[in-house]
Every structure is written in C-alpha cells, then in structure tokens.
C-alpha cells in the first residue's frame, strides 16, 4: 500500500513541478480559500491536518543515505507519506507541513498558551518559525538531487498579535527568485478569515551538498 501511495503522490508532485511556475510573480498565487467562508476554510484546514497526520511517521532526522540522490520534491513526498521522519520542531511548536508544490510550501500551526510571551500573546519567535519553515521549504522544493541550501537572511514583519482565540494559521511561502547560488522567497501568515498576521522574506544560499555550503 505504501508503495502505491508513494507512486501516486510522486505523480501528483511531478505534475505540479511541470506546471507553470509562480516564481518571479508580482503577487501571491490565487487560493481556493479566497472565495470560501472562514468557517468552511477552518473546517478544510482541520481536515487537511488530520489527513496528513494520519500518514506521518515518527519525528526525527533523516539519515544522509535516506535522502541521497533525491530531489527536494522527492524528499517531501517521502516525508508526507511517512517513509521519512518529520522534523521534531513540529511537535515542539505545534505546527505541520500541509502542502508542497514546486516553489511553494504551506505550514499550518495552532497558537497555544505555551507559545505565549510575558505580554500575554504569542511570542514573535513562533511567528518567525512558521514563516521561516514555509520560506525555506519553498526553496527546498526547487532543489535538484545533490543540491543543498542554507538561510542567509530572514526578515519578519508582525502586523497583528496572535492569541488562542485564533484557532489555526497558515504560513504560505513562495519562491520569488531562483538562481544557481541564491534564492529568495516571500511568505504570509494568515488566519482562516484571510486576516494577515505577519509576512516575511528570506535569502538562501544554494550549493552542492557535497560542499556543505563551503
């Protein structure tokens, strides 16, 4: 069953990779959430999260041999199928990867009391972590086998506070520029009603994995 699922998922991801790229776009890609009610969006987000959690394996870090020779998209396909572990920080900060396509990654998180700062709202580091994850993984989806990346710069703008009154948020990251040695991406952190809570950008250095970024 897992082999059949992986074949199906790989086909879907391959089609996405061949689709017209959103890179160098002046504005974010249209979303099906744009025309739906907040209640319908929240219900769909929750269903998406449950479906993905049911397939995930254990939290951990993949061994180098497990990802050797695989593209970024192939790594994510294996992670979402449970064949590779998902990052432990997802459990620590209560968020998860819910969508990947070539040049795009979406993470979903639940603001909880344990994420609060002394001022009584969600800590800015939680905003930054979700945005950084979406930004970095959007870049990761574009990598060929044998290529790696590292974040060189991260900029976050928090425009509204978050509290437990907001049931779920999504960080939506999209690659803006992809070169041989550098990539840039933008991301937005939004609620089910489309309200913007933060936005950010990143610059990533790209390198041959054997070089380790040296």
Which helices and strands occur, and which strands form pairs?
Elements: H1 2-18, H2 38-53, H3 64-67, H4 72-81, H5 89-92, E1 95-101, E2 104-109, H6 124-140, E3 147-158, E4 169-178, E5 182-190, E6 196-208
Antiparallel strand pairs: 1-2, 2-4, 3-6, 4-5, 5-6
Helix pairs in contact: 1-4
Sum this structure up briefly.
The protein has 214 residues and is of the alpha+beta class.
CATH superfamily placement: Hotdog Thioesterase
Could you state the order of secondary-structure elements as H and E? HHHHHEEHEEEE
Low-confidence stretches: 1-28
Level-2 CATH architecture: Roll
What portion of the residues fall into strands of 2 or more residues? 25-35%
Which sheet architecture does the biggest sheet show? 6 strands, antiparallel
Strand order of the largest sheet: 1-2-4-5-6-3
Radius of gyration: 17 Å
Indicate the CATH class: Alpha Beta
Q: What is the tally of beta strands?
A: 6
Domain tally: 1
Overall residue-averaged pLDDT value? 88
The helical percent reads 25-40%
End-to-end span in angstroms? Answer: 41 Å
CATH topology: Thiol Ester Dehydrase, Chain A
| Helix-strand category | alpha+beta
Q: Give the count of helical stretches.
A: 6
Biased composition (Low complexity): 25-38
Pfam family, one: 4HBT
Keywords: Hydrolase
Region (Disordered): 17-38
């Amino acid at each position: 069953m897992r082999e059949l699922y992986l074949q199906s998922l790989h086909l879907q991801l391959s089609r996405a990779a061949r689709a017209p790229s959103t890179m160098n776009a002046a504005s974010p890609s249209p979303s099906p959430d744009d025309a739906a009610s907040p209640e319908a969006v929240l219900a769909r987000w929750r269903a998406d999260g449950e479906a993905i959690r049911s397939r995930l394996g254990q939290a951990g870090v993949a061994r180098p041999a497990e990802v050797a020779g695989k593209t970024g998209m192939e790594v994510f396909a294996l992670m979402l199928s449970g064949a590779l572990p998902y990052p432990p920080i997802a459990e620590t900060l209560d968020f998860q990867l819910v969508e990947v396509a070539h040049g795009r990654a979406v993470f979903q998180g639940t603001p909880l009391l344990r994420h609060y700062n002394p001022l009584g709202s969600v800590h800015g580091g939680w905003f930054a972590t979700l945005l950084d994850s979406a930004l970095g993984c959007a870049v990761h989806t574009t990598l060929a086998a044998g290529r790696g990346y590292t974040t060189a710069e991260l900029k976050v703008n928090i425009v509204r506070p978050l509290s437990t009154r907001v049931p779920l948020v999504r960080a939506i990251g999209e690659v803006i520029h992809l070169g041989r040695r550098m990539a840039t991406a933008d991301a937005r952190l939004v609620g089910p009603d489309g309200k913007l809570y933060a936005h950010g950008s990143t610059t990533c250095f790209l390198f041959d994995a054997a070089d380790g970024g040296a």
